[in-house]
Amino acid sequence: MPDEPLVLDPAHHWLVPFAALGAALEPPALPALDALLTHLREAARDSDDGLSLSPPHERALARARGLPPRDGALPWAALASDTPHAPQAWVHPVHLQVGMDQVMLQRAEQAGGLDADESRALFAAFEPLCVEDGVELLFDEPTRWRARGERLRDLACASLDRVSGRSLAAWLPRGEPARWLQRLQSEAQMLFYTHRVNDAREAARRLPINGLWFSAPGALDAHTRLRPPPQVDDSLRAAALGGDLEAWRRAATALDHSLFAPLLDRARRGEPLALTLCGERAAVTLVPERPGLTQRLARAVGLRPRASAQDLLRTL
Prior knowledge:
Elements: E1 13-16, H1 31-37, E2 40-47, H2 56-65, H3 76-79, E3 88-98, E4 103-107, H4 116-132, E5 136-141, E6 144-148, H5 160-163, H6 179-193, H7 196-203, E7 211-218, E8 231-232, H8 237-241, H9 245-269, E9 274-278, E10 282-288, H10 293-300, H11 309-314
Parallel strand pairs: 1-8, 1-9
Antiparallel strand pairs: 2-10, 3-4, 3-6, 3-7, 5-6, 9-10
Helix pairs in contact: 1-9, 4-6
């Protein structure tokens, strides 16, 4: 983790989640980013072993906004509400694929979608279980509900971005505060197993929505002064979370033209910018360097080594 937070102007800060997919995919050629890197230096890096509850792009966004760096407890649900100081969490209807020795999670979008009528029917069935535990359940949108209550204050849960398409063994809620949540999730699975919504989905050869995943628990601290968010480019998200590696490569190539090329123009004009690139295990923030005379001369005659976008992305 960085020793000190780097405070950047959000108007000139761009953040790119899923800029790298670890060892899963060799990054494509990105000539604009290659050229841009010759104007930038690394100002901050946040790395982990790939097993943190909050992925690097969420931690980077939290730092940019001035949130305390609490792994698995970045209160996005509370911040999206009109009561940010009340403990809340996202509740995601999901498909759980149960195998011989593992359980894999798929988002509702990856399981054939979830329309409003289906979602509200599952919501209505699950809501009484929450009420029994002193938790209020709110319907935000078909693929994401919101829970509110004191039980959510001290939870730490893996982000849905961490668990999508993966075995849940390393990501199950842990510790004493999560015992009630584990029970509640088990009760939801039993409830949904025989629900008419899933009977209809299976009859239509669609995957059942047979589980719930909680994420982004907690509340905004009273003393936290939020900063405006940076400019987040999410164009790589759908392909990354869908596991479509070729679509991700195409999206990365398009991003080189749509974002990195304009940023290169900014850098050449000497305008302020900061770029945070995020992968599976790390996020790196790059800012313009201020080279001395020797460095400028070396760049002018081509002696300065060119930074490689592919080499940088491999480290994420």
